[in-house]
Write a structure and sequence with these properties.
With 183 residues, this protein is an all-alpha fold. Helices cover 79% and strands 0% of the residues. It has two domains: 95 residues, Rna Polymerase Sigma Factor, Chain: A; 77 residues, Winged helix-like DNA-binding domain superfamily/Winged helix DNA-binding domain (Arc Repressor Mutant, subunit A).
């Protein structure tokens, strides 16, 4: 039978007393966690983590009731966090399926196109790249010229050359564009 003496022994590092506490409480804790999560491995992991946390804080306890309350509060909090995580993942996956179709093809295609555009822009010559980046931020030719301290005509020339180079570098992605507009 466990009592406060066990807790005092555990506080002094007595592993036998800790093992007895573990054996006494494990079944009840497992029942509680498993009933909530229906997953044996997760239940075992949560309980193990609770006992590890207790062992690390064992010097702070002087009563069996306090230890039980501590262990069960850790377990309860971890179970609730796990349930929230699962619910959040399910909600996110449901939203993706609703918005993007069952496989998320639209999202993958968009990511592929965006990645290709970013890569192609990075490969442009530095001054041309800067003009394109500023254009993508909706800056006017005049504002770009002012920021870069070059003439507006130079901006127009670099912009035209940059977009032409991008069209050439990104022509392989054109086959994906129709998929973006499919519902």
């Amino acid at each position: 039978m466990l009592d406060n003496l066990h807790v005092e022994q555990i506080a002094r590092g007595n592993r036998v007393a800790f093992k007895e506490l573990h054996e006494e409480l494990y079944g009840r804790m497992f029942y509680y966690v498993y009933k909530m999560l229906h997953d044996k491995e997760q239940s075992e992991d949560i309980i193990q983590e609770a006992f590890v946390l207790y062992w690390g804080n064992r010097v702070n306890f002087n009563s069996l009731l306090a230890v039980k309350a501590y262990l069960f509060s850790i377990v309860r909090n971890k179970v609730m966090a796990q349930i929230r995580d699962v619910a959040n993942r399910k909600r996110i996956l449901d939203r993706i399926e609703r918005e993007e179709g069952e496989t998320g093809d639209h999202l993958l295609i968009t990511a592929e196109i965006c990645g290709g555009v970013q890569r192609a822009v990075r490969e442009l010559p530095p001054q041309t790249r800067r003009v394109i980046e500023l254009s993508m931020e909706d800056m006017t030719v005049e504002r770009i010229a002012e920021v870069m301290q070059i003439s507006p005509n130079t901006v127009k020339t670099l912009k035209k050359a940059g977009y032409q180079a991008l069209r050439e570098k990104l022509k392989h992605l054109r086959v994906l564009l129709p998929f973006l507009f499919m519902g």
